[in-house]
Structures are given as structure tokens and as C-alpha cells.
Amino acid sequence: MQMPAIMGLAAEAAAHAATRQAIVARNVANADTPGFRPFDLAPFRPGRDAEMRATRPNHLGGSGGEAWRARPVAGPLDPDGNGVALETEILRATEAQRAHDRALSVYQASVDILRAAIGRGR
């Protein structure tokens, strides 16, 4: 049985948010590492990320999951060449947490609707 599209979309959004949270954690862990540049993910795009993921190079005009690749973030550098701003990382972590919570809420609502449809409420 295939998962309904909305549930698949919610799962993809949650995975994107979790990946972004891991990248933010790595940035914070390297906040004092000389020469370290912070990374971030491109925003989640439902039409492209969830439904049209390239599975091999040049498939669908893409290059295999490029949308989820961590990319360096431009910004001011400390004298030691480190570019991590903890305030910015806190904001990114908050955005990722909210996106994850939203995705889980959509997923749970979809499960509740399916349960109601088959007569197995909570």
C-alpha cells in the first residue's frame, strides 16, 4: 500500500528539517574552529524536493539530490577566518524546529483522518 501524497510530503519536509538541524549543530560545534565556514540547506521546495528528486546524474535535469546539499553561507569572518555567528545559528535552529513541528502536525492530522475514515478513531 502506498502512502498518501500528503503524508509523503510531510515526511520529506520533516527529513529536510532534521538534516538542516544537524547542519546547524555542526556549525555551532565549530564556532571556535579557525577558518571554519558555516553551511546551510536551500529552503524546502515541495514541488521539486518531494516529487522530482534526481536519482542519478543529469536525471530530470538535476544532479542527484543537489537541493539537499549543504552549501557554504557567505557572511562576515572573524579575525581567525571563522564565519559562524551563534545568533544566526540560533535563528536557523529555531526555523528548522518549527518546520519539523509543522511537518509532524500535518503527518499526525493525516493519520487521524485515515483512522477516522476506516472507523478506528483514537
Describe the structure.
The chain has about 120 residues and is mainly α. Helix content is about 50%, strand content about 5%. The protein contains three helices and two strands; from the N terminus they run H-E-H-E-H. It has a two-stranded antiparallel sheet. It is elongated and about 65 Å long. The model is unreliable at about 60-65 (pLDDT under 50).
Q: Please, how many helices? A: 3
N-to-C span: 22 Å
Order of helical and strand elements: HEHEH
How much of the sequence is in beta strands? Answer: under 5%
Computed CA radius of gyration, to the nearest angstrom = 18 Å
The largest sheet is: 2 strands, antiparallel
Helix amount: 40-55%
Structural class: mainly alpha
User: Which spans have pLDDT < 50 for at least 5 consecutive residues?
Assistant: 60-66
The chain-level mean pLDDT equals 86
Task: Count all strands and give the number.
Answer: 2
Secondary-structure blueprint:
Elements: H1 5-29, E1 39-40, H2 46-50, E2 71-72, H3 86-117
Antiparallel strand pairs: 1-2
